[in-house]
Amino acid sequence: MAALLSIFFLLVYAELMTVLSYLMCSLALPLVDSSVVAFDHDLGFYAQSFFFWFKQHRWWDISFILIYDTFLFQMLAIVIFFILLGELTSLQRFIMQFMLAALLAVVISGLLPAAGVSDWYHYTPNPASTYAIHHFYELRQGILDVTQGDGIVELPSFHTTMALIYAYALRHQRKIIFIPVLILNCLMVFSCIPVGDHYLADILAGIVLFAVVIGLEQLIFLGVKKYGTEI
Fold first, then answer.
1. pTM (predicted TM-score)
2. Distance, CA of 183 to CA of 106 (rounded, Å)
3. Which of 72, 100, 130, 209 has the fewest beta carbons closer than 10 A?
4. Could you read off the pLDDT of 139-170 as tens digits, one per residue?
């Protein structure tokens, strides 16, 4: 029953965060792309060069698209993995980390909205990003299409934060499980630039968000153990 409730809350919460991301985007605050690009350039990083290199090397491009798209499959796999092992505490802590990460990422992206690398440099992104950018600008103009389920969080990179959470969640498992997951998610973080239409600053912000989320989750977990019913 606890496992079913955890999955239910995960699914419901994910939908709520989608709605919240649309509401935050509709605030239509000034875009921060110029500042983010300046930050990247100060570090000597030019995201568009990565995109064009991958477009010129088709099989590398396809490979990293597939890696980027493991995002949801990994989440489902980790939930099932913890349920099968009967590690309900680990499952609930993982879900708490996801909930905190999603909430903070959505709020930050609404307060610091960015359209992404392809929009700034005026080139055609991958199809998924094309739809997301179109939806992003519709929301900023007050147009809501509830049939669309595009991820519109640019800064921080939510893929980056969750990639680190996936690896972190399995850190105590056997090396034969943890090491492949760690490698996969390092590659997924890298894929956020050529595939996810992200700036380097988005990736770095996603790493910082991961650290904040883990810190908050640990405080909540310790608080529940000390003052309330154990998770």
1. 0.92
2. 27
3. 72
4. 898 887 766 666 788 999 999 999 999 999 99
